[in-house]
Structures are given as C-alpha cells and as structure tokens.
C-alpha cells in the first residue's frame, strides 16, 4: 500500500517546527516539494506554498535581527575593552581590530595627525598585507581620509579608484593599489571643539574591502558609534599618559610644587570618576536597562533633574536626582533642534536658557536630546560624564529601534495580508495577530497616509511609532502607509478620535519627512473584516481630501461634511453614480466618446461654452454637439438646479472612486 498523502495541517506544523529549529531555507522549500510530490490537492497546495513563503520571510527577518544584535553586542564589548585599556597603543589596536570585525571587512586602519609635520600618517592597520600601504603619509585634504578630516563627516565609496569626489595623488593611489583596496568607508574621530566652534578631528577610522561594496546607512552609523567610543578612549589614554608624566616630573620637584601636585591628583581623580561613571552606564545597558535607567543614573551622578526628548520634542524620560519620575511637557521642537544642532557641530554639550543640552547621534542622524536642568556651570569632568551619557543613550536607542523595526516589519506583513485579502482566512489572520502581539478583535484606529515623495514615509512612520508613547504598527500598502493604532476607552467614546489622530500624525510625519503629509483616519474598528472595511473608507476619504485640496492635513470621513457622509459605508456610492451617470458612462464605453469628461468641464467652467472648449481643447461647436447628445441621454431637465447638483455630486464621486471619463 502507498503511503497516505500528508495533510496541509501536518505540512504547516512541519514548517513551524523547521522555523523553530532555525532550519536552512532549503529544508523549508522542501516541504512544498514534498506536498507537490505527494499529490496534495491544489487548494491545499496553494495554502502550503503561501505558508512556506511566509516562513521564509520570517526566517530572514529573524536572522537579520540576530545579526544586528550580534553587531551591537560586539559594540558594547568594544566599549568595555576600551574602558579597560590604559596604554594608547593597545587602545588603537583594539579600535581597529573591532572595526574590522564589526563590519566584516578585509582590512581596517586608523590615521592620526602629525602636528609637527603638518600631515597625517598610518598609525595602526589590521588585515593589511602591503608595507607600502602601512607606511603611507597623507597631506591634509588628500584622498577620502583628507575629506573626512576636513568636513568632520563620514564618507564612503564603493570604488575608490574611480570616485572623482576625492583628490587623488600618485602616493595614495600607489598604496591603495598595492593593498588591493576597492570599497572604503571613513569616519571621523571627533572630540571637543575647536576655536571655530566645530568638532576637533583627532583621527580617521577606516574599514575597507578588496571588492566593490556599498556600505549601508546602518554600517556607517555603527562605525560612527565605535568612533565616538574610540575618541573618548584615545582622549582618556592620552590624559592618563599626561597625568602620569606630570606626576613623575612633580615627584622630583621641591616643596614649592606641592599645590600643583595636588591639582594634578585632583584632576586624575576627576578623570577616574568620569571613567567609572562611563563603565557604570555601559554595564547598565549590557544588563538590559532602558532610557529611563540611564537618565536616573546620570541625574543622580550630576545631582540635577534630567529629561530625554525625541527629535520632535516629546519626552522619553524625566527623572529627578533621587530617581523619581516627574511629568514634563513636550519641548519646543525648533528650540531643541537648534540646541542639538549646536551640540552636534561642536561635539560638546551646550548651555542654553538655564539648561545643558547634548545631542544623541547615530552618525549624522539626531536620535534624541539630553537636557540637564541645571543653570550653573558644569566642570570639565561632569561635562565629560554628561557627554558620555549621550553616547551610551545613542547605543541604547539604536538597539531599541533595530528591535522595533524588525518587529514592525513582521507585523506589517500581517497588515498587508489583511488589507489585501481579508476573506481568504479571517480566523488565520486573527490567530497570526495574536502570535505577534496584535489583538485584531480589539478596537483600533486606522490611518492612511500619503506624501510626495513617498520613499521616506515608511521609515518616518516607524520613527513616529517608535519615538513616542504610541502603540501600533505600520505597513506600506497600495502606494500609501497604513497605521493601525491601539485606542483606549476615551478614544472609543469620542467621535473625533480618528480625526484627532489623523491631524497629529499629519503634523508629526510632515516634520519627519520635511514635506506635506496627508492623513485620513477612521475607526474605532475591530475584527478582520471591519478593519478591511475601515481601510476602504479611509482610502476613499484620502481621495476626497486630495480632490478638495486638503493636502498636508489630517481628517476623518465625518469631518468632510456632506461629501463625507456620501462616502461613508452606509451609502451605495457605486449605485448612486450608476443611477445618475449610467447613460453617459455606457455611451462612452460603447462608442469611445467623452461625454462624462465634457459634462465635468462644462460644470467646472460655470456653464461657459468658451471656457469649457478651452479646457477640452476642442472647437466650441464640438462642445455644443456633445451637450445636445447629453440632453438626449439624460433628458431636457439635466441643467435644472436640482438635477445639475445631483450630476455634479455624481461626477465628483465618480472621480473619487477612481473612475475614468471615457
């Protein structure tokens, strides 16, 4: 007897087992092959194939998540290694070795400026095989490293030899060619502020491959975060060297230098305190602390209230020196942005209006602003501690965002499936939602957003959800971005909840993408079918706002007045349009004419034949002939006030529903 065909349920269970065991992609694909070979019915086979495709996507997302976690863990380990190093040579070797490991490149190296010679030289390399390359010296402004040092900004090139952005010299080209390097990424090691108010570049950190490669924004941000730790570690090592040298010189001096010796010891103690504080913050992050824990630690160390705000000014944490939380209003976004930009340019904390502000950065991206509510001056050691807290906070926010983006991506696939085909498997969609932590049966507000250009909108939506106290999920669908937001009892009882949520999202998303964002809201709605219907209503509302010239605003259907009522689910829009315009639509479809378009132009021109013919680009006699045909099809009263109003409304609804004019 032949072996019975496996059921689709058994095959689905097999997929889940393989996914749980982190099986190779080939084994997941083999389940579909087995089902096909066993003669599973076509309908069940299609379900198995869809499940296998979903399993492959989830496997890819989980692997990417684990890879990012490994990278960030390595970055935290680097912080510990650098904090434990005291010898400058060991510090530099640890930096370069970890940079190569984090980015997985063929080589990594670090250049430092030679103040006496007025150029820069290759200080440490890892993975290099060329003696010529290891002995390179660069004049200021030469090559990719020269541009990084001049602009204090990261630069990357997929192919250095053909990249015309950099000043090539025979010396540099010979070294790069001898080493065989192609793709290069360089980031500045910034510390302190120079006389001009910009960050002082104390070196350049590079990662390079011997084959063409495009460095992603995440890789640039990762290397910039390492460079921030590296700059602090180098400065600490140099300061300790200076302190040891000073103490050695003072040890043989006479009693008249006792006061200076005490000052040096005090400076050394302050340096040690700042270093221990940095180790404490890094350990806190490694043990799973959050933003509030960092804020509480720093507020206690500096004995002042501290708040952390996202780029839009919304508070992420607010803690007193005793560790207790307190309520704080959102900060003016423009004021915070200006202070953070001043901090970013100078790579230092700045004092404004009785508060100290330090920008929290990932590369050049502003993640948040640390605000210390302290009117008096910070001494150098406390200021250094505050600035190091910003670096640690940036690492924590980067990790949190990576996790949130991965989770949102997986949940967003559920939303896309729900909106694309809610009738296929409502119970299965609801069960998927519960496994992902989304109860689709609970009431939700549904927002649909669009912007031009739309490329930045998806990322802005994730930052909008991640950065504030907003619980929900986002997904890109049909050229728009859909946000599904949890709503509380107050929102469920309020008729304006959807409109308020749409307006808040339009304002914040517009700030994030620096362009007008139009948002339509609906709900509350719960359940797979009701959510799909809510999306259809919000999409119609979005088209209505576009036609009404309300780009860059937020609204719900109920707020569009009579037009909004007509667009609601309680009205048969298609039936109304067919009943009013049916004769013209059928005539245009059969004969390829443009009667509907002509009628729209006529009403749009206020009944003027001359303006209508200009709009249509035809002779005025053609307009008259078409209006005569419209009268034959619709009746002599077509231009009476009541009938004309009905026709204009039907034309507007036909346009909103995506209909064509023939």
Describe the protein's architecture and organization.
By secondary structure, the chain is an alpha+beta fold. The chain is 57% helix and 16% strand. Strands 3-2-1-6-5-4 form a 6-stranded antiparallel beta sheet, sandwiched between helices. It has a 5-stranded antiparallel beta sheet with strand order 8-7-11-10-9. A 5-stranded mixed beta sheet has the order 13-14-12-15-16. The longest helix is centred in the N-terminal third of the chain and has 43 residues, at 42-84. The chain starts with 7 loop residues before the first helix and ends in a 6-residue tail after the last helix. Mean pLDDT is 80; it is low at 193-197.
